[in-house]
Each structure stands twice: as C-alpha cells, then as structure tokens.
Amino acid sequence: MPIVHGLERRFEGRVDFFYLHVGEPRTSQAREQLGYVATPQIMLLNPRGQKVREWIGIVDEPTLAAGLEALARR
User: Fold this and answer.
1) Interhelix angle for 2-10 vs 61-73, to 10°?
2) DSSP assignment of 19-41, as one string?
3) Whole-angstrom Cα distance, residue 64 to residue 42?
4) 4 with 17: CB under 8 angstroms?
5) What is the pLDDT of residue 22?
6) Which of the listed residues 10, 58, 65, 72 has the most CB atoms within 10 Å of its CB?
C-alpha cells in the first residue's frame, strides 16, 4: 500500500510499523494473536501491543493519518 509507506516515512520515530504477510509462516502466530482476517487490514497497536484501532479494506490517507496521529500522541 503506497499510502502506508508514505505515512511510515512521515511518522518515522513516532510510530513503529510492521507488516504481516498472509503467506509468510513466520508471521502466522502474530496474525492469529491479533485476529488478522483480511487483506488489506490495518491495525494500530498501543505500546503494550493492544489494538486501539482497526480498518479492514482500503483506507484513505487522511483517515489513516488521523489514526496514526492520535496513536503518536499516546
């Protein structure tokens, strides 16, 4: 998702990004723990790893940026 990669640069140092790939066995445990069900699916996690926001499907940049900004302020 090009939007996510652009926001990753914008929020560098304030929000950590990680990617879970459906076909990657190494991420299966994390996908299961987080309840990953669809592609694309974006989850915002607090520093304790708890979900604070989630979108399933395509998300526009302003919506995602607002969610990231709120997360960065926590």
Assistant:
1) 30
2) ---TT-GGGHHHHHHHT--SSSE
3) 9
4) yes
5) 80
6) 65
